[in-house]
Amino acid sequence: MNEKSINDIFAVNVTGPTMLAAAAIPFLEETKGSIINLSSTYGSKAAAGLSLYGASKAAVVLSTKAVQELDQHSLESRSIFYDKNK
């Protein structure tokens, strides 16, 4: 694991969805839309070799909750948890 790999994981799983949500908020407010983020069960459990992936997915869940808790906008926001074993 190197710095580029870490940055890539967080760029795809955290930075991208966060920036997209921020850009979409005015349009979603106008249309009464929702924010749906895809997370993973690995965001709440440990797995060998997946700690950084899990940390990035936990960050997705927390950023989704932050939109709800701050209630700056009248948007619904949810995280969907994916588990490839179910």
TrEMBL record:
Gene3D superfamilies in the cross-refs: NAD(P)-binding Rossmann-like Domain
Pfam families xrefs: adh_short
Signal peptide (residue range): none
SUPFAM superfamilies from the UniProt entry: NAD(P)-binding Rossmann-fold domains (SSF51735)
Cross-referenced PANTHER family: EG:BACR7A4.14 PROTEIN-RELATED, ZGC:101858
Annotated protein name in UniProt: SDR family NAD(P)-dependent oxidoreductase
Organism: Chengkuizengella axinellae
Organism placement in taxonomy: Bacteria, Bacillati, Bacillota, Bacilli, Bacillales
